[in-house]
Amino acid sequence: xxxxxxxxxxxxxxxxxxxxxxxxxxxxxxxxxxxxxxxxxxxxxxxxxxxxxxxxxxxxxxxxxxxxxxxxxxxxxxxxxxxxxxxxxxxxxxxxxxxxxxxxxxxxxxxxxxxxxxxxxxxxxxxxxxxxxxxxxxxxxxxxxxxxxxxxxxxxxxxxxxxxxxxxxxxxxxxxxxxxxxxxxxxxxxxxxxxxxxxxxxxxxxxxxxxxxxxxxxxxxxxxxxxxxxxxxxxxxxxxxxxxxxxxxxxxxxxxxxxxxxxxxxxxxxxxxxxxxxxxxxxxxxxxxxxxxxxxxxxxxxxxxxxxxxxxxxxxxxxxxxxxxxxxxxxxxxxxxxxxxxxxxxxxxxxxxxxxxxxxxxxxxxxxxxxxxxxxxxxxxxxxxxxxxxxxxxxxxxxxxxxxxxxxxxxxxxxxxxxxxxxxxxxxxxxxxx
Length: 434
Hints:
By secondary structure, the protein is mostly beta strands.
């Protein structure tokens, strides 16, 4: 078949398609809709069916123009589309996306002698129509415990095939760290927040926009630690959560809790009391001791509010490590061998070890996580070249645990000390229980 016949057939095919869709606009303004031009260089532009990116997608109603570049010898161009019901294109290369699907536009270039000097094509993707789609919810409230990341899934109602999609979102509160992602397989949105606050998300999917108000509230507990004497009680409360919660004790024999969060010490030991909300937990580490020992621990905390001074260690308002321990324990009748003056840390340790008060395992991860330590226990720092018992140079009093959160159903806790920050001490340090 010669080139003239080939050209005639192509022209007839183009005219028949054009007449069939005569009702379509004949001159499409490229400035409407998406308004993006498609640049075709010499050569084939057809991509594999699965080879696409979001930037190449069109939405229904998008318009633009196919521009043939780097072809000075071309004097006239024809544009043919295999699916004009999806992509309508006029004689000037202006196109409009009419329906979802895939269409191939063939571009034929002629020279001044009406000879075909160029033939190329491009595949255009028009994503699905989401005009009938809606969000299952337009308002979302999330409750955040501690520094956790909170997420919620929102279902897309009447969602079409979203395997090819154009998706973006914008938050009205830029200071609130919120992310949104689209699961095109399950037709859901995943909204994730890394902080608390309020924002409105404007979500655009295939050219249609949806809004959802997101509120993230911090949930706090009034106590992360509690020290009770036997039969003593206190009440745990949540702030930031308006609904009723269920309270649980990890050891009801040690501490009980009622439906209102009131806890009561039963016998000596440690337990976690926690509230459950939306399958998440927030809790308090509770230690139950004798009335005498509670008095000792509270005295140590009070003394530690004073000023550290070895020179004034026995004066009110001042302390050093060993005088703090000695003065606190005198409240329960323990003097560590000296009823008139506080011995040094090494002598307190020697007194404890000689009476078999040493705690097996010392300050170990096992003793901490299994809550084997008891408020009033003493930690001794060793290793100094001071010619004292075991080179001990410091003593510190353990005063309880603090519940920092939960990893799933497992509580995470840290140690508390009378005159040091939480988590003080190193693994394996010598410990004793006077």
